[in-house]
Amino acid sequence: MSDSRASTRASVSSSFTPEATPPHSPDLVPSPPPIKRVEFDADGDLLLRLGSETPDGIEYEHEFKVCSATLRRSSVVWKRMLFGPWMEAKPTGGKWTVSLPDDKPKPFEIILNIIHSRFQLVPRSPSRRLLYGILVITNKYDLVHFLQPWAKDWMQAAKSDSPNLRLSGPCSHMWLTYISWELGDEETFTKGVKKILLHTTVDEDGELTFYGIHFAEMECVGPPDLGDRILENRNLVMTAILRSVNSEIVRRLALNVTACHIQDALPSDQKACNNAILGCLWRQMIHYRGALPPTSATEVSESISSFLSSLDLVFSRLQSIDCVHSSACLPVNQAPNFAPDLEFETEWFTCIKDSHKEYMQAQRLKTGLSASGE
């Protein structure tokens, strides 16, 4: 009898496999993520709950205990939100809790440290990404004037944080552009917009992209109409470039006109010069660009910088019939080089309007910066 029981137990034991493990009970739910609580005011009457982050792969719910009166005095936006006829207003009973799921906890915490006079916890040199997040919040709640004691140092830190576009990446460059916009550094903002203009491409849907990042995907870049301004300015610059290039081709295609600049040359030599440059121009276009340039700016999807780089290769390698004609007749000697770091003429660069300059001037009055960020 005992042998039979032992045999049965052995049989059951040997048949047990991980696959045979019963499923978890539906009643066993994961424990809620830990809550990160920060007390900004021991007597605070308001709890702010912010969205989740995943540092180290762990989700944290942020709960900030604050003084509602401090928020009310600091921001007219908070005053209307917390003390107006909205759902965030103080309830008649129970805890006063307001959820702000769209606000990033880390930069929000820095803002709360500032307005609650916890200055020892304010970073002296925040990263470009963190400063971008701070300024998104100060813009949303009209708080940028609180940053005046740190604005100059923060702007300098942002400019020195991987200034090279290839090293810092397109997102970081857009962060810097927005930082300069919000703090009022007009010089840095202008340089940033020019760089975006030079390196912006257009996708199949006609949407602007900056090194693969769609403008629509960026939370903030600058003025709301910046994307439209860049697209308009891009078309203006492309039109000017195409006009210059295509006029060179059209002049040399004319049967009754020669583009040769040697006035006393034989007609046959002038014609040979014209044909040599035209043929070389055609061949170089096919080799470096795959086709002749289009006539409309809207047909060019590549960036201005890339377009100019290819044209620079084309025009710098043209040949004429001899050294005399080369020095006088080659297009590269008749017009400026098509350099990829094009210095825009005033009438070419129209992205920044007077209203943009007025906004940055108003920001400088709040932050204490100069137009150059000093």
From TrEMBL:
Listed InterPro entries: SKP1/BTB/POZ_sf (IPR011333)
Stretches the record annotates as Disordered: 1-34
Ranges of biased composition (kind: Pro residues): 20-34
Gene3D superfamilies associated with the record: Potassium Channel Kv1.1, Chain A (3.30.710.10)
Comp. bias intervals (Low complexity): 1-15
Protein name: BTB domain-containing protein
Species assigned in the record: Podospora appendiculata
